[in-house]
From TrEMBL:
<dbReference type="Pfam" id="PF00856">
    <property type="entry name" value="SET"/>
</dbReference>
<dbReference type="GO" id="GO:0046872">
    <property type="term" value="F:metal ion binding"/>
</dbReference>
<dbReference type="InterPro" id="IPR043017">
    <property type="entry name" value="WIYLD_dom_sf"/>
</dbReference>
<dbReference type="GO" id="GO:0005694">
    <property type="term" value="C:chromosome"/>
</dbReference>
<dbReference type="Pfam" id="PF05033">
    <property type="entry name" value="Pre-SET"/>
</dbReference>
<keyword id="KW-0158">Chromosome</keyword>
<feature type="region of interest" description="Disordered">
    <location>
        <begin position="68"/>
        <end position="153"/>
    </location>
</feature>
<dbReference type="InterPro" id="IPR025776">
    <property type="entry name" value="SUVR4/1/2"/>
</dbReference>
<dbReference type="GO" id="GO:0016740">
    <property type="term" value="F:transferase activity"/>
</dbReference>
<keyword id="KW-0539">Nucleus</keyword>
<keyword id="KW-0479">Metal-binding</keyword>
<dbReference type="GO" id="GO:0005634">
    <property type="term" value="C:nucleus"/>
</dbReference>
<dbReference type="InterPro" id="IPR018848">
    <property type="entry name" value="WIYLD_domain"/>
</dbReference>
<keyword id="KW-0862">Zinc</keyword>
<dbReference type="InterPro" id="IPR046341">
    <property type="entry name" value="SET_dom_sf"/>
</dbReference>
<dbReference type="InterPro" id="IPR001214">
    <property type="entry name" value="SET_dom"/>
</dbReference>
<feature type="compositionally biased region" description="Polar residues">
    <location>
        <begin position="110"/>
        <end position="126"/>
    </location>
</feature>
């Protein structure tokens, strides 16, 4: 008795049958694909058996040499599976190089439809391990310009497809399809980036370009494409996704840069797009290099000189694989991973550092100066707060009362039907959603408190530590402090696990961030390399924990050698004491020791991140964490900004205010030129 057939095989057959392909035709292809993919059904089942159907049709296409028909097309009147797989109009059977004959149906599909589909699928398959063979098949289609039909298919030969798939899986170097120019008759395509193509005509063939379709007229009769020469790939370049390039470009050339307006030039605009493609591909290459580095301290040959001995900028020699290392996890060794120094379009050296955290964070955080000329930041990277000297921060389990933790919880507190004791301070509701975002309500109230402080409760110290620091003998009256909303996270004495949804900030940075040199006279800034949803945790403000007195003294002594970051006052709970001791009146300063948050620039009012007080390890709220969350969805490559809450008219503030160039229409700096 024959053994039962694997149900996955039956499913594949019936999926193909629904496309009009008989089991006999599917069998040999499926067998070969299974072998090719090492019996990994995932690849075959993916996208409703796309790979299988493609292999059938594409191989068939490859072998056909009949003439194409031209004619009008109505792409929308066909069901999706037909649109996806139909090729060119029908012709009757023909023979070509021993390939068995396909007999095509009467329905006529004009060649322009083929072209449109080719370009579309060439984009969608980028990054797909199978896409290379797709490119190959596409090349064959374009070269042969054969009439390609869909059904019924009598037979075909898979040997070439299978061989090529195998070959290309082993060969890691990128494959290139033909550029979209020079396609068959009846189809006009224009490459606005043809300069390079023409320049290289003598030595390189059109095969040497990776093509991205940018825009096309209806049904693809006219296409604007971007062609990237393959030699780029050999020069520390990673083929980027076009959508990401466009986002990158929008960030790099904001509207204010005359990219639109009376100065607008389409050609210049497109040139910028090409340059952005090159730059972005280089960034990606750098990031992939980070992951592949055998050690974390390979360094570059370029970069400005520095003068702070506490920061170890290791030997600037790419080939010096055993470069110096600070040896201490406290001091930052800015790690540079760049195979080859690169210059930007102005001839200035591009500086890239693969991980400014020196491995102290869970994720690498890169630094990129593509403008050139700025000194590298001068500080010591610390992933967590660290006491400078006199601050009183007492962390002990004994201080955590039973009612301040959830020792009887197990697993994830958010999944429990009754919120645990840790949600008490947020009125019995957790501040986080199960997705790890701030709840709408909590976020809304934080934003409201920040933007309309006058509408919220303020308290006034009897003896304000801030004023005391300025003048111990005759302090001025307290100017008021907001009593802010806290998040209280579960911690060590709680019974839940680290995966508990009420432990977000303590798990550290998880998003892809990058320090970059802004082009708006703000110095370095921080941006996200991935899209962030509203309410997402970005990073904590980590720095030295100082008493306000220490901060005041520090600022008085400051020589101006260091660019000051903005200290954060931990005054959200000062209302709970009548008179606060100096060692309990704390603040955070990231000027000398800090984490990535020290690069977040200020934006008046409509910044995209907000600071939230978070209690983690001590119920004593003289000390707590400051965590940054997004106020709205933030696009990839958008700069992260925070409203420092500066009063630009307060000339007595311990840190002298800068001239604000935040660009916000609500900018509060009235004194700038
Ligand atoms: C916390 S640091 C931010 C990182 C800083 N841009 C750097 O290069 O290290 C604060 C300093 O950045 C600069 N800065 C931040 N926001 C700015 C803004 N909106 N306009 C001008 N300068 C700004 C000021 O020099 C400020 O003292």
């Amino acid at each position: 008795m024959a053994p039962d057939r694997d149900p996955r095989i039956s499913k594949a057959f019936s999926a193909m049958k629904s496309m009009g392909i008989t089991t006999e035709r599917v069998k040999p292809v499926l067998k070969r694909l299974l072998k090719l993919y090492d019996w990994n059904w995932e690849h075959i089942e993916e996208g409703n058996y796309r790979a299988l159907a493609d292999a059938i049709f594409e191989d068939a296409d490859d072998k056909l040499t009949n003439e194409k028909n031209d004619g009008p097309i109505n792409c929308d009147s066909e069901p999706p599976c037909k649109k996806q797989h139909r090729r060119l109009p029908n012709v009757t059977s023909t023979k070509d190089n021993g390939i068995k004959i396909l007999e095509l149906e009467e329905d006529k599909i004009p060649q322009s439809s083929n072209r449109t589909r080719l370009v579309e699928s060439s984009q969608s398959s980028l990054g797909d391990p199978r896409s290379e063979s797709h490119h190959h098949v596409r090349q064959a289609q374009v070269q042969n310009r054969g009439p390609l039909g869909r059904e019924p298919i009598r037979d075909y030969n898979f040997e070439n497809v299978i061989k090529d798939r195998k070959k290309k899986h082993i060969n890691c170097s990128p494959q290139f399809s033909l550029p979209t120019s020079n396609v068959g008759p009846g189809l006009v395509e224009t490459s606005l980036f043809s300069d390079e193509l023409e320049k290289n005509n003598g030595s390189d063939s059109a095969h040497d370009y990776r093509t991205h379709n940018i825009a096309s007229s209806t049904c693809g009769r006219v296409i604007v494409s971007l062609n990237c020469h393959h030699t780029l790939v050999q020069h520390n370049f990673h083929i980027p996704n076009l959508d990401d390039v466009l986002k990158f470009m929008e960030t790099k050339y904001p509207r204010s840069d005359n990219i639109v307006g009376s100065e607008f030039s389409l050609v210049k605009f497109l040139k910028k797009l090409c340059e952005s493609y090159v730059e972005f591909g280089a960034i990606l290459a750098d990031r992939s290099l980070i992951n592949n580095l055998p050690y974390n301290d390979i360094h570059q040959t370029s970069g400005p000189k520095r003068d702070n001995p506490r920061i170890d900028y290791p030997a600037r020699d790419v080939d010096n694989k055993v470069a110096s290392h600070s040896g201490s996890s406290d001091s930052v060794a800015l790690v540079v991973a760049q195979r080859k120094p690169m210059n930007n379009s102005n001839g200035k050296r591009v500086v890239r550092i693969s991980d400014i955290t020196n491995g102290t964070e869970k994720v690498s955080i890169s630094l990129l100066d593509e403008i050139g000329g700025e000194d590298l930041p001068n500080f010591t990277y610390v992933p967590e707060n660290i006491i400078y000297q006199s601050a009183y921060v007492h962390v002990s389990l004994a201080r955590i009362a039973d009612e301040d933790c959830c020792s009887s919880c197990v697993g994830d507190c958010l999944s429990s039907s009754v919120p645990c004791a840790c949600a008490r301070d947020t009125r019995g509701e957790f501040a986080y959603t199960p997705e790890g975002l701030l709840t709408e309500e909590f976020l809304r109230s934080c934003i409201s408190m920040k933007q309309q402080p006058q509408e919220h409760y303020q308290f006034f110290c009897q003896d304000c530590p801030l004023e005391r620091a300025k003048n111990a003998y005759s302090p001025e009256k307290c100017k008021g402090h907001l009593e802010r909303k806290f998040i209280k996270e579960c911690w060590r004495k709680c019974g839940c696990k680290m995966i508990c949804g009420n432990r977000v900030v303590q798990r550290g940075i998880s998003r892809k961030l990058q320090v970059f040199l802004t082009n708006q006279s703000k110095g370095w800034g921080l941006r996200t390399l991935e899209e962030l949803p509203k309410g997402a945790f970005v990073c904590e403000y980590a720095g030295e924990i100082l008493t306000n007195m220490e901060l005041y003294e520090r600022n008085k002594r400051s020589t101006g050698k260091y660019k000051h970051t903005y200290p954060v006052l931990l005054d959200s709970d000062w209302c709970s004491e009548n008179i606060l001791n100096d060692e309990d009146a704390l603040c955070l300063d990231a000027t000398y020791y800090g984490n990535v948050s020290r690069f977040i620039n200020h934006r008046c009012f409509d910044s995209n991140v907000i600071e939230v007080p978070v209690q983690v390890e001590t119920p004593d709220r003289h000390y707590y964490h400051i965590a940054f969350f997004t106020k709205r969805k933030v696009d990839a490559y958008e700069e992260l900004t925070w409203d420092y809450g500066i009063d630009f008219d307060d000339h007595n503030h311990p840190v002298k205010a800068f001239r604000c160039s935040c660009g916000s229409e609500y900018c509060r700096d009235n004194g700038k030129k």
